[in-house]
Amino acid sequence: MSNQNQLEKAVRSAKASLAVEGLYVTAEEEALILEHLEGKITEEEFHKRALELINK
């Protein structure tokens, strides 16, 4: 299994766990998470953009 497939599987699993609790991840949130997991953005940038999403 490729690294990309492993990341996507991990995100799907996390989304399923959240859904059981009645919480859902938007497409924008998922894209941000994948960018961070793929190393495309720093931890600092991830936190900054996550806070921007929260405050929308």
Condensed summary:
Residues 9-51 form the Antitoxin VbhA domain. By secondary structure, this protein is mainly alpha-helical. Helix content is 73%, strand content 0%.
Features:
mainly alpha, 56 residues, 3 helices, 73% helix
Polypeptide structure, described:
The chain has 56 residues and is mainly α. The chain has one domain. It contains 3 helices and no strands. The model has no long low-confidence stretch (mean pLDDT 94). Residues 9-51 form the Antitoxin VbhA domain.
Strand content: under 5%
Q: Kindly state the percentage of residues in helix.
A: over 70%
Reported for the largest beta sheet, the result is: none
The overall pLDDT, averaged over residues, is 94
User: What low-confidence regions span 5 or more consecutive residues with pLDDT below 50?
Assistant: none
Order of helices and strands: HHH
Overall geometry comes to flat
